[in-house]
Amino acid sequence: MDVFLTGFPKKLLVAVSVVIVLAMCVTPADARSVEHRRRHQRRPDTMAELTKDTMKRPKNSSTEQYKNATRKIKHKLRNTKRFFDQDRRRLNETKEYRDGMPVWLPAVNFVDIHFHDYRTPRKAGKSITERKFAYLMPKLHKTLKEYQVIFKRLQNVQLNTSDESFNSYVAVRKHLLSNSLAKLYSTIAEIQENMVAVKMPIPHFDESRMKLETLKTKVDATQCLKNDYIAFRGYGNLLNNWYYEFRCPLNKKSDKKCAGFHAKMKEKLGNKRYKNRNNVSITS
Fold first, then answer.
1. Which of the four pLDDT bands, split at 50, 70 and 90, describes residue 129?
2. What is the pLDDT of residue 270?
3. Which pLDDT band, with edges at 50, 70 and 90, does 70 fall under?
């Protein structure tokens, strides 16, 4: 034995002996205990991830569908408004014809629309998003269809004039009407498509209810200018109001533009109430 050991350096022999002793001291049970502790230490991270995932609230697929449909229509409306504003700037409008509210111009009560209470009556299973969609989209669809009819009528105007200087205006108005009608067709189609997507019936539009008798198709240059301006001004205001109605719900007041829109609607609401009180006092 001594002869065998003398072949090894003493330091190496001591190190090997220590390793052997330690290996003999660690039993299989201890090894399992160490592995168990390792797994136990890793568990909190895994459990935290599982808890985080499982605590996420499931999304209401129906509400999301209405939100997506509303978002698409809002974006389409914004683009329609932007293109119309660009084309309208090219039209040479004169201040002489900037007054008038004829009966053929559609009237939209945006005050009632803006302050409509979607919380009452509460319908079982209907979210605020669904109720807003059901309330707003038929009104938006109707007003756009009305301007579609008006622009078609303006497009078919026969001018009783031989004024050569008026021809440049005629060319610009033709371009504006053509582009506006194309965008209107596209926007109305987008609304109808999203109505169908949420299983909402497309409302019937009755053109005969519009008061178009005074919107003549045979006019002189003066009347043509006046009708054009009134129609384009009304349509521009309509697109602007609808866009901000979708962009600025009542609970969104941090945005400066939305705050301005809310203030304008609130002022109109106050004027409407004052007018109604006066009418009641006069008739009573």
1. confident
2. 80
3. confident
Per-residue model confidence as pLDDT tens digits over 227-256: 998 999 999 999 999 999 998 887 766 678
**Sequence-distant (≥ 6) Cβ neighbours of residue 141 within 8 angstroms:** 188, 191, 192, 195, 202, 203, 205
Closest to 170 measured CA to CA, from 108, 220, 235, 209 = 220
The beta strands (E) that lie in 19-82 are given as: none
In CATH, the number for domain 66-247 is: 1.20.1250
pTM for this model (two decimals): 0.67
Give me the residue label for tokens 């007054």: 99
What the block records as the tokens of 62 is 């129906």
End-to-end Cα spacing for the chain: 129
- Domain ranges within the chain, ordered by starting residue: 2-54, 66-247
- Residue 1, helix vs strand vs coil: coil
User: CA-CA distance, 115 to 158, in Å (whole number)?
Assistant: 42
Cis before 121 (ω within 30)? yes
Distance separating alpha carbons of residues 109 and 98, to the nearest angstrom = 21
